[in-house]
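Module 6 notes. Inverse folding takes a fixed backbone as the condition and produces residue identities as the prediction. Think of it as a translation problem where the source language is geometry and the target language is the twenty amino acids. Below is one complete input and output pair. Work through it position by position during the lab.
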């Protein structure tokens, strides 16, 4: 199994928090989201990940170079990252012909949730939080 981590975006809504760095490099509890992703992936047996980068990709590459957490990482570049996550997924489309986990790089999650996904008996699965109540005009799966 392989993971595709979509980490190319600017993150305009979190601009004050990100301080001009990719969202996946936000630190929570002393660890970046990216480090948490790689550690979690490794803990459930995922050994390879494609990270789609774009905005400030050199910062993401440097973070992975410092510690890839035992995961073999390949970088795919989305030069049109301003067009959104779907353009990043398109860059990684060749990896979609095998068992793959597709992840946005800016979501904090518990490792056990990832384990539930990996151990699912279903051929296709989507993790979502049914307890989230959306109040705005935009609707999304959380």
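Target side of the pair, the amino acids:
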């Amino acid at each position: 199994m392989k993971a595709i981590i979509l980490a190319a975006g600017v993150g305009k809504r979190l601009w004050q928090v990100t301080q001009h760095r990719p969202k996946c490099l936000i630190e929570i509890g002393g660890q970046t989201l990216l480090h948490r992703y790689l550690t979690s992936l490794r803990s459930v047996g995922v050994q390879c990940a494609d990270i789609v980068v774009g905005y400030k990709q050199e910062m993401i590459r440097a973070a992975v170079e410092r510690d890839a957490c035992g995961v073999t990482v390949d970088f795919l570049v989305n030069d049109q990252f301003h067009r959104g996550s779907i353009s990043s997924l398109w860059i990684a489309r060749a990896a979609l012909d095998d068992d793959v986990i597709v992840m946005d790089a800016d979501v904090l999650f518990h490792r056990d949730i990832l384990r539930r996904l990996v151990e699912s008996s279903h051929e296709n699965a989507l993790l979502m939080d049914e307890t989230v109540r959306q109040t705005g005009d935009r609707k999304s799966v959380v």
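Reference fact for the lab report: The first strand starts at residue 2 and ends at 6.
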